Structures are given as structure tokens and as C-alpha cells.
Amino acid sequence: VAAAEPLPERRSLLAAALPFTQALLAQVGRTLARAQAALAWPEGSPPSPPPPPPPCAPLSDADLRTYLGPGGRLLRPHDLRLHVYHGGVEPGLRKVGPPGSPRPPCPGSARAGEYAALKALLAARAAPAELALVGAAVRKDVVRTDRGHPYFGGPEDGHPHLAALQALLTTFALGHPRLSYCQGMSDVAAPLLAVLDDEAQAFLCFC
């Protein structure tokens, strides 16, 4: 209600509405009190969340074997995911594929040969202008890869890992012309390459 003195014709309306307003506010207060009592909340505070589970050690090779059955099949996937979520994974296990997954139809050397053939084919098919445009876009991000990491550290010229990252992303962009290369893709591909240490395998995972 405005602080100014109400007009005479409004004074009667306010007087008539006051009991209704007071009754409404009282009813709202009673309803809130009942809801608070039903939920057993202390005055002015929500219920406290359950305590977080205790942290566990990173998943080791021995831990992983406890989740596997005969033939290496995963028996308790939910428990394994919880273990990894709360404790992480030892660095040596990060390269291990999902337990129980089917083996690839051909060995890594064959995959590397397929990737090399694909890379050469896409580079040969691309127009020189397209190849130069895609290569320049990829190069801008490749040289900004975290150089503080040992895998990508060192001089830029002739760096084998930077060259592999450049080739991986260029091959992907040429093979997916509708998507091509987008800024930030290198942030996804660089960790894959650093962990797998194999350009062909990193390309497959990135795809």
C-alpha cells in the first residue's frame, strides 16, 4: 500500500479487504507450519545431505581382476564404475580396454596400415586450397597444445608428437568435410595421443 494518504473512495475498499488479507496470510502461515512439521525440517534450514562415501584407492590391476569372471568378462559393472568414480584409475591401467569387450578384428599393425592408407588417400583427393586451409586451422591449435606436458614439450620444429597431432586432426577434418575441424578438437585429441602414444589408435578413439 502506498505511503500516501488513500483517496476517500479507496479507503472503504482497503478497509473491506483488510480482514480477507489477514485471513489469507494466516492460512498461508498455518499451511507452511504444517508442511515444515511434516518434513521435520528445523526452522529455516533444509535437511542435511547424506555424508559422501569415503574415498578409495585408485583402481589397480589386482582390483580390476576382482570385478572379472571367467574369460575376463565383467561381472559387476556398477561396482567397478563406482570404484573408478571415487578413486580414479592407476596410470598404467588407462590404456586397458573395457573388460569383456570383443577383440578388434585385426591387430594393431593392420589398423596402423589402414590409417596410413586412409591418410594418404584423403590428402591426395583434397584440393590444394582445401588442404592448406584445413592444415592452417589445425596448426593454430596444435602449436598451442600444453607445452608444459613432457609428451608435447621441446622445440616446435620437427616435434614428432605435434606432427602426429597435426596429421590426426587434418585426416579427421578431410574425412568429415561437413564437420571439418572445430577449435578445441585438439584439446580432445591431445590427451588421447599422449596416453595411447599411437597416432592410428588415437585417431580411432577420436573418431
TrEMBL record:
Residues 39-60 are annotated as: Disordered. Keywords: GTPase activation. One of its GO terms (molecular function) is GTPase activator activity. PROSITE patterns: TBC_RABGAP. Residues 105-207 form the Rab-GAP TBC domain. Residues 44-57 have a biased composition (Pro residues). Gene3D superfamilies: putative rabgap domain of human tbc1 domain family member 14 like domains. It comes from the Eukaryota. GO terms for biological process: regulation of autophagosome maturation. InterPro entries: Rab-GAP-TBC_dom, Rab-GAP_TBC_sf. This is TBC25 protein. It comes from Mesembrinibis cayennensis.
